[in-house]
Design a protein that fits this description.
The complex is a heterodimer of chains A (220) and B (294).
Chain A lengths: L12 E3 L3 H18 L5 E7 H10 L1 H9 L12 H7 L3 E6 L8 E8 L4 E10 L2 E7 L2 E2 L8 E7 L4 H11 L4 E8 L5 E8 L5 H9 L3 E7 L2
Parallel strand pairs in A: 2-3
Antiparallel strand pairs in A: 2-4, 4-5, 5-6, 6-7, 8-10, 8-11, 9-10
Helix pairs in contact in A: 1-3
Chain B lengths: L4 H11 L3 H13 L3 H24 L11 H11 L6 H18 L3 E3 L9 H13 L3 H21 L4 H4 L1 H19 L4 H13 L17 H20 L8 H14 L16 H11 L7
Classes of the chains: A alpha+beta (220), B mainly alpha (294).
EC number (chain B): 4.3.1.17
Cofactor (chain B): [4Fe-4S] cluster
GO molecular function, one term (chain B): 4 iron, 4 sulfur cluster binding
């Protein structure tokens, strides 16, 4: 089931005008920000389907940038987020993409700061709820029924073991796990669905393990 | 966990509890929260709805200038004249409109289930409140009952205009409101389900065709229609009228109609009212662009 909480339906509290095109878009931006772990210096946003056709009227552009600034859906600063971001020196570009996508409200968010970059595809499925379907070229197949930990790492022996050991130590049970890599020895991604909520101190510990590049969690 | 309306009603009947109680217990269970936590989170949402209505009744105007001020006109009309459709109904309409006018003006609202359809549930709640004099807890329960039905629609069909048209947004919102009105008025869980089905049936096929892609025209007035539809359907269910097509099958029909709808009618501003000469002229004026041709 995609929606699990009554507050997915009665909620979120948000700045108008559209739950899918404004609140959901803000959540896609904020997911990118959380995964990146810091404020990006540049952002390149590609919009597809209904997002591409109506983003100006719905404030989808300011919402995604608001998310990149770590604003929640009810933050009144969303309306002025592009102004604020540009004042901070963020380079922003928007592209209306004609390509067909599975979901009508799809955004591809590319962000970076000269040191690192990140690319994420998010869909806004209605009522303010968003899903991340792709991260750094890796397709994410999250069931959405459990919290998930995403671990970007270098494809080296021991990387997976060190992660699962840390989770085991904290009595976190893994329900489902998927590992994919771009090429032998290159960047790889672990998607780990767990039964318990993973605290920030555990994420810190994971980040410090060898060969680990980035760690983030997705809570429903 | 209930997966459809039939199961939701069955749990309520078997345990002899209200629909709102089924939803509260499930939320506590799924989110591992106490009753107090769940109730207080909903109370916050209720307060946001109250503030939005208050703000809208003071009079707001959207940035585009397309919407705003109609809630004020309705309240004034209510004070000075005898409305033909009835005071409660028109009060609900004015409060639904107030909420959506605030939303269009990028004010703060609570999505129920979406922002574009955020007027139906609070509009009817605050109007029915004046008649039934509910406690604060009963008002919070109204939102849990609405949420329980919306939860089924979101999981089994869609609550997104881009995926299912306006029937998925205002249609769902109006039907959720109808089910909650029935519970507040003392109806049974089954009657809530009938009210939901009757409302949604009357909204099937409604397209999402916002002028200039803005959540304003026709969204604000569609919430007025949704609120009135909800109250009328709730009265029908409370009178003992049932839906010949069961609630879950109506939701299934809504889903299939949404799938079959062309994308021009699903929040792309390419068809319907958005593509009328006046719709196109407004769009051109708002964005300062040449007028689009069909």
């Amino acid at each position: 089931m995609k929606y699990k909480s009554v507050f997915d339906i009665i909620g979120p509290v948000m700045v108008g005008p559209s739950s899918s095109h404004t609140a959901g878009a803000a959540r896609i931006g904020r997911a990118a920000r959380n995964l990146f772990g810091k404020e990006p210096a540049w952002a390149e946003i590609h919009l597809y389907g209904s997002f591409a056709k109506t983003y100006r009227g719905h404030g989808t552009d300011v919402a995604i940038i608001g998310g990149l600034l770590d604003y929640d859906t009810d933050d009144q600063r969303i309306g002025k987020s592009i102004e604020i971001a540009e004042k901070k020196g963020m380079k922003i570009s928007f592209h209306e993409d004609e390509a067909a996508t599975d979901h009508p409200n799809t955004a591809r968010v590319r962000i970076g700061d000269g040191v690192e970059d990140l690319e994420l595809v998010g869909i806004s499925i209605g009522g303010g709820k968003a899903e991340i379907t792709e991260l750094n070229g890796f397709e994410l197949r999250l069931s959405g029924n459990h919290p998930a930990v995403l671990v970007m790492h270098n494809d080296r022996h021991g990387a997976i073991a060190s992660v699962t050991q840390i989770l085991a130590k904290h009595e976190i049970n893994i329900g489902r796990m998927e590992v994919s890599r771009k090429d032998v020895g290159k960047e790889a991604l672990m998607v780990i669905e767990v039964d318990q909520n993973v605290g920030d101190y555990i994420l810190k510990e994971l980040e410090n393990a060898s060969h680990i590049l980035q760690v983030a969690k997705i809570v429903d | 966990m209930f997966r459809n309306v039939a199961e939701l009603v069955e749990i309520a009947e078997n345990e002899n509890i209200k629909i709102s109680e089924v939803m509260i217990r499930q939320e506590m269970d799924v989110k591992e929260k106490t009753r107090e936590e769940v109730i207080s989170q909903m109370e916050k949402n209720l307060s946001v709805m109250e503030k939005a209505v208050e703000e809208g009744l003071q009079g707001v105007k959207s940035h585009s200038g397309l919407t705003g001020g109609d809630a004020v006109l309705l309240q004034k009309y209510l004070e000075e004249k005898q409305p033909l459709s009835g005071e409660l109904l028109l009060d609900a309409v004015s409060k639904a409109v107030a909420t959506n006018e605030v939303n269009a003006a990028m004010g703060t609202i609570c999505a129920t289930p979406t922002a574009g359809s955020a007027g139906c549930v609070p509009g009817t709640l605050f109007a029915v409140k004046n008649r039934l004099n509910p406690t604060r807890e009963e008002m919070i329960r109204f939102l849990f009952t609405s949420g329980a039905f919306g939860f089924v629609v979101a999981n089994n069909a869609s609550i997104s205009g881009a995926a299912g048209g306006c029937q998925a947004e205002v249609g769902s919102a109006a039907a959720m409101a109808a089910a909650a009105i029935v519970e507040m008025a003392g109806g049974t869980p089954q009657q809530s389900s009938e009210a939901f089905a009757i409302t949604l049936k009357n909204m099937l096929g409604l397209v999402c065709d916002p002028v200039a892609g803005l959540v304003e025209v026709p969204c604000v007035k569609r919430n007025a229609a949704g609120a009135s539809n909800a109250i009328v359907s709730a009265d029908m269910a409370l009178a003992g009228i049932t839906s010949r097509i069961p609630c879950d099958e109506v939701i299934g029909a809504m889903y299939r109609i949404g799938r079959a709808m062309p994308s021009a009618h699903k929040e792309t501003a390419e068809g319907g009212l958005a593509a009328t000469p006046t719709g196109r002229a407004l769009e051109a004026k708002i964005y300062g662009i040449p007028m689009k041709k069909e």
